[in-house]
Amino acid sequence: MIRPNFVKDQVAHLDIFEELMADLLALIPTDGTTVDLQDLFFCYTIDSATEFLFGHSVQSLKKRLSGVKLDDNDFASSFNYAQDAIAKNTRLGPLRHFFRDTKAEHCNQVCHELVEQFVEKALKYRANYDEEKAATDDDKKQRYLFLQGLAQQTGDPKRIRDELMNVLLAGRDTTASLLSNMFFMLAKNPHIWNKLREEVASLEALRLHPVVPSNARFAINDTVLPVGGGPDGNAPVFVPKGSIVAYSVYSMHRREDFYGPDANEYRPERWADLRPSWEYLPFNGGPRICVGQQYALTEAGYVTVRLAQQFSVLESRDPGPWEENLTLTLCSRNGTKVALRH
Ligand code: HEM
């Protein structure tokens, strides 16, 4: 249902990315003071995703700039907390019933209340579709709104709310994590920053630190996987109906038989002649491939190029190597502490 809302014209709204860039740049010190870019990237992507999805940004970067103290009733902080609680609950499994988290319940409510307002707008748009569309046609500059696209397809308020939440969840932390992991590695490798090719730098960041590092499928019928069985892993594997097959994209992306003996290193130059197929799956593949892939790569590429234009020096301010923080996505445990200079 949401796939038609992701055609190229609709996701390439560079003006949104540029407007937010001004706020992002204003928050980066230029005197060599350490800044945590990961923190700022998470603000950037929630602002852009809420603008794209709802037509209304939650303005977390602007709030930072004006020094507003964020409390538990703020959408961006509540969304972060509620998401971490989902990851924690998944790990606790059946034990989660013994750890009631009232703050998470409150945060869920804050998120739902904000999204409800947009659901109401969507339903109003649907009810007055002809008039609203005529008004839109008159103003050619009007941006495409994901919310309106959704309202044309369904009038079920719960479905609209769930789809909005789902895309916000799928699209926000992922892109922020990609940018954070990539800048962590770029800051450790200044020679790459200097001759940056934004596209290959992000492809390599998604190989070494795939932000969706594992995945699974549930067999709805008996089936056979062509390889993976037997002592050498080359025999077929029978998968009975009802089983769950989990796989690790993280491990696959570091296999030396695919990527060579330096598979564990961040080396974007390898993409000069690398043309991977199913051994490279940051966005998955097949019918459920990520619908936001173009959006994510456009946004990450845009932010990278703008920062590269603005700053010639990017220095790591983290003494250690990259360490993982696995919640719903994979980002850097110690943030992306760097210093930037013109
Ligand atoms: C670096 C950024 C991103 C990565 C690595 C990523 C990765 C993925 C992966 C691996 C899946 C497949 C999940 C599965 O197998 O079931 C997926 C699905 C999805 N992604 Fe992304 N994603 C990113 C950004 C985005 C963005 C920006 C959006 C939206 C604006 C988005 C929306 C979605 C949606 C709606 C699905 C579900 C598609 C379906 O089930 O048909 N993603 N993503």
TrEMBL record:
Keyword Iron in record:
yes
What SUPFAM superfamilies would the database entry show? Cytochrome P450
Organism (species): Aspergillus oryzae var. brunneus
What family does the entry list?
A: Belongs to the cytochrome P450 family.
Tell me the domain of life: Eukaryota
What is the protein named?
Unnamed protein product
Q: Has UniProt tagged this entry with the keyword Metal-binding? A: yes
Task: Kindly give the InterPro entries that the UniProt entry links to this protein.
Answer: Cyt_P450 (IPR001128), Cyt_P450_CS (IPR017972), Cyt_P450_E_CYP52_fungi (IPR047146), Cyt_P450_E_grp-I (IPR002401), Cyt_P450_sf (IPR036396)
**What cofactor requirement does the entry state?**
heme
Q: Which UniProt keywords apply?
A: Heme, Iron, Metal-binding, Monooxygenase, Oxidoreductase
One of its Pfam families is p450
